[in-house]
UniProtKB/TrEMBL annotation:
This is Putative diflavin flavoprotein A 1. Mediates electron transfer from NADH to oxygen, reducing it to water. This modular protein has 3 redox cofactors, in other organisms the same activity requires 2 or 3 proteins. It comes from the Bacteria. Gene3D superfamilies: 3.40.50.360, Electron Transport, Fmn-binding Protein, Chain A (2.30.110.10), Ribonuclease Z/Hydroxyacylglutathione hydrolase-like (3.60.15.10). It comes from Chlorogloeopsis fritschii PCC 6912.
Length: 576
C-alpha cells in the first residue's frame, strides 16, 4: 500500500541542485529537480535561469510515475521519491520520451521497482531496451489509448511526435484535468514557484525555449494542439520550468500563433534526418539553429517514418534542403531519399551531413545526384567519424548559418536598397571604431569584425556591442560567456580587417596565420591590436536584426600609449 504524503519543501538556491515536492491535484504530486546553475542545453541553447526536470506521481487504486530526472539528481531524486512512495508497489512508469534529462534515472527506478510496467510509445520502449540493458515489463501505447488507474484516474495518451523526440507522448488525467506534456510548453526557468503566476517573469524564457526546441517542428506542434483541443485541460504539467495554470490559454495560443507563422514563412529549409540513428538529432538541431539565425524557417522531418506525399509537398515548398545520411539498412529512408531526388530542382540549395551511426549511407553518390540536378551546394559535406564534440556542433551551426545566408541574400540586397538617399546618408554620418571580438567556449573559438561598439556604463565598467543575428559567433555570446574586445590601430588595421572579413567555411580556423596569445579568460588576444579588454556578457537585448550584447569589462591593456583607434567612416547607413 502506497502512503501518499504531500510535502512542500521550497528551497533556496545555495545548494545549486535541490528538490521540491508539491501536490498539484487530487492524489497527484510533482517532484521537481531544480538545477539552478545549468547554463547550456547543447551548444546553441544558452540558459540564463537554469532549469528544472519535473517528474510526477499519480495514485489511483494503482500508481504511476511519469518520467524521472536527470542523472545528476540520482541521490536527491531517489531520496525524495523513496520518501514519498514505496517503489516496490509502483505499478506503472510512464515515459513521455527517452531523452536522458527525463529518463536518466529509469535504470535506478527499475532496480528498485522490478515489478513495474514501463509505458511508452513503441520507439520509446525500443530506445529504453538499449539504454537500460535489463529486461522489464512494458506496455506500448498509441494515440487515444487509455490506462485506468482506478479511483477516477483514467489516463489517456496523446501521441505528440517530435515534441521533442519522435517517441513523445502526452498523458491526460481526466480526474485532475492535468495534461503531462514533458518538453512541450516548457521553459528552462528555475525558481521556487511551481506555477506560472507571474507570466511577465517567464515569457522571454518561454519564447526562447519555443524558438530553440519547438520552432523546427512547427507542423508537429500544430498537430499536437489539434489533438489536445478536445481535452478539458486545467493544468499543463511540463517537464521543464513552472507548470502552466494561470495563463493556460494564452500560452497555448502563443504556441499556435508562432507555429502558424513558422509554417507560413517565406523561406523554408526542409531538414531530413533519421532521428533514432547515430548523432542525427544533435547535429540536425545545431544546423537548424544556424539556419533560423537568418530568419529562415526549418522543418525537421524524420526519414524513417516520413510519408511520401508529405516529403514531396515539403520539398516543393522548400528553398533549401539539408539531409543527414540515414543508415544503409533503413528502407523507408531510402524510399524518402528517392522522393526527395525526384522533387528537388535547380533553384534550391543543398547541404549534406553524416550522422555517425557507423552504417551511414555514403554521402558522395547522393551529392553527385543533387549536383546533376543543378542544386547549389551551400556548405561542403560534413563528415562525422566520431561522437560529436563542441567543435563539430559549431561546424554544424556555421553550416546552417551559411545556407540561411545564401537563401536570404536577395532579401539583404533589397534591404540595402530600401532606404531613401537622404536618410541613408544621414545615418552614414554615425562613425565608429574598428574592433575584433574574439570568443572561446571549450574547444570552440570564433571571431568577428565589430564596429558598432560603445562604452555603456562606468560603474561597473561596461561595453555594448551590436551583433547581427546571423553571425555564428552569437552562440558564444550568451550571458556568462566571455570574450576579448581587440581594438584595431589607426595605421595597422587593414590586414586584420581583411582577414576577419573573409568568408570562412564552416569550422575553419579563424586564427590561422594570425599571431595571438591567450587572455586570462581563455579568449585569443590579437598580438597586433592596439588595446584589448576582457569582457563577460551580463545582458542581451534583442533589437530587431541585432543582439545588443552588454558586458562588464574585467581587465584590459594598451600596447601603445599614444596609439589611435582605427575609425570607420561610412557613406551610407544601411549596411556596415
Ligand atoms: Fe527535456 Fe527532450 O528533453
Amino acid at each position: 500500500m502506497v502512503v501518499l504524503t504531500a510535502r512542500s519543501e521550497n528551497t533556496k538556491p545555495q545548494g545549486r541542485l535541490t528538490m521540491q515536492t508539491v501536490e498539484i491535484g487530487s492524489e497527484t504530486l510533482c517532484i521537481r529537480s531544480l538545477d539552478w546553475d545549468r547554463d547550456r542545453f547543447d551548444i546553441e541553447f544558452g540558459l540564463q535561469n537554469g532549469t528544472t526536470y519535473n517528474s510526477f506521481f499519480v495514485q489511483g487504486d494503482k500508481t504511476a510515475l511519469i518520467d524521472t530526472s536527470h542523472r545528476k539528481f540520482q541521490e536527491l531524486y531517489l531520496d525524495a521519491l523513496t520518501g514519498l512512495i514505496d517503489l516496490s508497489t509502483l505499478d506503472y512508469l510512464i515515459i513521455s520520451h527517452t531523452e536522458p534529462d527525463h529518463s536518466g534515472l529509469v535504470k535506478e527506478v527499475l532496480q528498485l521497482a522490478p515489478q513495474v510496467t514501463v509505458v511508452g510509445a513503441k520507439v520509446a520502449i525500443q530506445f529504453l531496451q538499449n539504454m537500460v540493458h535489463q529486461p522489464f515489463q512494458s506496455l506500448i501505447v498509441k494515440n487515444g489509448d487509455r490506462l485506468n488507474l482506478g479511483n477516477g484516474h483514467e489516463l489517456e495518451f496523446v501521441s505528440a511526435p517530435n515534441l521533442h523526440w519522435p517517441d513523445t507522448i502526452f498523458t491526460y488525467d481526466a480526474k485532475t484535468r492535468i495534461l503531462f506534456t514533458c518538453d512541450a510548453f516548457g521553459m528552462h526557468y528555475c525558481n521556487d514557484y511551481t506555477f506560472d503566476e507571474d507570466s511577465e517573469l517567464i515569457e522571454a524564457d518561454f519564447k526562447y525555449y519555443y524558438d530553440c526546441l519547438m520552432a523546427p517542428n512547427a507542423r508537429s506542434v500544430l498537430s499536437a494542439i489539434k489533438r489536445i483541443d478536445k481535452l478539458d485541460v486545467g493544468i499543463i504539467a511540463t517537464g521543464h520550468g513552472p507548470l502552466l495554470q494561470h495563463h493556460l490559454s494564452e500560452w497555448v495560443n502563443r504556441y499556435q500563433q508562432w507555429s502558424q507563422e513558422q509554417t507560413k514563412a517565406d523561406t523554408l529549409v526542409a531538414l531530413f534526418y533519421s532521428e533514432d540513428y547515430g548523432y542525427s538529432d544533435q547535429l540536425a538541431r545545431a544546423i537548424a539553429h544556424g539556419i533560423q539565425r537568418n530568419g529562415v524557417a526549418v522543418e525537421l522531418v524524420d526519414l524513417s517514418d516520413a510519408e511520401p506525399h508529405e516529403v514531396r509537398e515539403l520539398v516543393n515548398q522548400a528553398a533549401g534542403l539539408v539531409i543527414g545520411m540515414p543508415s544503409q539498412a533503413n528502407q523507408n529512408a531510402h524510399a524518402a531519399l528517392s522522393t526527395i531526388l525526384a522533387a528537388a530542382h535547380n533553384k534550391q540549395a543543398i547541404g549534406l551531413f553524416e550522422t555517425g551511426g557507423g552504417e551511414d549511407e555514403p554521402i558522395y553518390p547522393l551529392r553527385n545526384k543533387f549536383q546533376e540536378i543543378g542544386l547549389t551546394e551551400a556548405f561542403p559535406p560534413i563528415l562525422i567519424k566520431e561522437p560529436p564534440t563542441q567543435v563539430i556542433e559549431q561546424i554544424c551551426d556555421e553550416a546552417g548559418t551559411d545556407i540561411g545566408q545564401w537563401l536570404t541574400r536577395d532579401r539583404t540586397i533589397k534591404q540595402i536598397k530600401a532606404l531613401d538617399n537622404d536618410l541613408e546618408r544621414a545615418l552614414g554620418r554615425l562613425s565608429s571604431g574598428l574592433y575584433i571580438m574574439t570568443a572561446r567556449k571549450g574547444d570552440v573559438k570564433s571571431a568577428m569584425l565589430a564596429s558598432w561598439v560603445m562604452q555603456a556604463s562606468m560603474n561597473p565598467l561596461g561595453v555594448a556591442v551590436a551583433v547581427a543575428k546571423d553571425r555564428a559567433i552569437e552562440s558564444l555570446l550568451h550571458v556568462g560567456d566571455r570574450f576579448v574586445l581587440n581594438v584595431l590601430e589607426e595605421d595597422n588595421y587593414q590586414s586584420l580587417m581583411k582577414h576577419f572579413l573573409k568568408r570562412f567555411s564552416p569550422g575553419a580556423d579563424r586564427f590561422a596565420g594570425i599571431k595571438t596569445y591567450s587572455a586570462s579568460n581563455g579568449c585569443p588576444i590579437l598580438a597586433d591590436a592596439l588595446a584589448y579588454m576582457e569582457c563577460e556578457v551580463t545582458m542581451r537585448m534583442e533589437c530587431s536584426d541585432h543582439w545588443i550584447i552588454y558586458s562588464s569589462v574585467q581587465t584590459g591593456r594598451v600596447a601603445k600609449i599614444d596609439g589611435l583607434t582605427a575609425v570607420h567612416h561610412r557613406k551610407v547607413g544601411n549596411h556596415y
